[in-house]
Design goal:
Number of helices: 11
Distance between the termini: 43 Å
CATH topology of the largest domain: Rossmann fold
CATH architecture of the largest domain: 3-Layer(aba) Sandwich
Order of helices and strands: EHEEEHEHEHEHEEEEHEHHHEEHEHE
Number of strands: 16
Structural class: alpha/beta
Strand order of the largest sheet: 3-2-1-4-5-6-15
Shape: globular
Length: 360
């Protein structure tokens, strides 16, 4: 076995996202040992390497890290942690944690849980759209502006590969949520307020509201007054059918636990692969008081699971590159906190483009 300086545990390391996180970090850091956590032992790692090992990590257990040695440098969570068991286990061991799995309700739940614990390490809640990729680029686009109003739109390919946990993020079509506009909050519903958006390649379609933590984290930045997230499928008939089911109340009628299998079947039909696209548009004001409009497109030919993996990996990459005597301070962080200096912007662009992401 190669002796390495640092170990990273990836909970859900066999999954669609977790395995890609492992591959990205493995190839970027030759001194890194990777532990892939799953609920059962004896599984074959997704790729062969003498720096990749397996360990039992069950997020439903009272202590998911009971089988893990305490010399782990970092934990990346790529599987649902609905009871915060993994979160608490990491905090109590003083191990930094990156989590890319939380929709808004369990995002708020994590905040509450952390407040009950003595925090001795950073907790990075990178659960905005695609592992926080959307909010990271949105923050970059808003650089040097004030009073920013942000619109993020995603084009979701029905042919894309996806893990089963991804559907939980979207299976909330009948639940209202809060958005921030001009520093005030109001309640909206998913699949409402369509906004026409033109995506890379010229595909134009209405995008509909969806609840993501980007609504929560971005307006907490002093220069961002409003943030909205919308989504569309790349199959207009499917998008229209879902929006109609929500608008007519049919989705609400099948929102109970009894109909969970039906809803999951409607939302989760992964294919062999498809590109994932983001369009980020904003209005803001520069330091001279002039109104400014900006637009950025982000496209990953390898799809949403790869873009999510990159969102987790870039957070881990920064922790790995910090000097040993200057670790990240204990606290709760969001993906957009990755940007501390202007040089970070260039590093982020280089990171994503080096992994095939196209920016326009």
């Amino acid at each position: 076995m190669i002796t390495t300086n640092r170990k990273i545990l990836i909970a859900g390391g066999y999954g669609a996202v977790g395995a890609q996180i492992a591959r990205i970090l493995h190839d970027r850091h030759a001194d890194l040992e990777l532990l892939l956590g799953g609920r059962s032992s004896g599984k074959t790692p997704p790729f062969a390497s003498n720096r990749v090992h397996t360990v039992i990590v069950d997020t439903a257990a009272p202590d998911p890290l009971i089988h893990v040695q305490d010399d782990v440098f970092l934990i990346i969570n790529a599987v649902n942690d609905l009871q915060d068991s993994l979160l608490v286990s990491a905090i109590r061991r003083g191990i930094p944690l990156i989590d890319v799995t939380r929709w808004t309700e369990v995002f708020h739940q994590a905040h509450h849980t952390v407040k009950q614990e003595e925090l001795r390490s950073p907790v990075i809640l990178s659960s905005g759209w695609m592992g926080g990729t959307a909010s990271l680029f949105a923050m970059m686009l808003a650089e040097n502006l004030n009073h920013v109003e942000m619109n993020i739109s995603a084009l979701y390919s029905l042919r894309d590969k996806a893990g089963p946990d991804s559907v939980t993020f979207m299976d909330r079509m009948s639940i209202p949520f809060q958005i921030t506009e001009l520093n005030t909050q109001r309640e909206v519903y998913p699949m409402t307020d369509p906004l026409p958006v033109t995506f890379p390649g010229g595909y134009r379609t209405p995008c509909y509201r969806l609840d993501t933590p980007d609504h929560v984290t971005l307006p907490r930045q002093s220069h961002i007054d409003a943030s909205s997230f919308r989504i569309a499928f790349d199959h207009k008939l499917s998008m229209y059918a879902l929006a109609s089911m929500v608008k007519t109340g049919i989705w609400s009628m099948i929102s109970g636990e009894r109909f969970t299998p039906l809803r999951r079947k409607l939302l989760y039909n992964p294919g062999n692969g498809g590109a994932h696209h983001l369009v980020i548009e904003l209005n803001g004001m520069d330091n001279s008081g002039k109104q400014v409009k900006r637009r950025l497109t982000v496209s990953d030919p390898q799809g949403q699971s790869h873009l999510t993996a990159l969102g987790a990996a870039i957070q881990a990459d920064k922790l790995l590159r910090l000097p040993a005597d200057k670790p990240m301070a204990a606290g709760i962080y969001y993906p957009e906190h990755w940007l501390d200096h202007h040089t970070d912007r260039d590093a982020a662009v280089q990171f994503y483009t080096a992994h095939g992401v196209q920016l326009g």
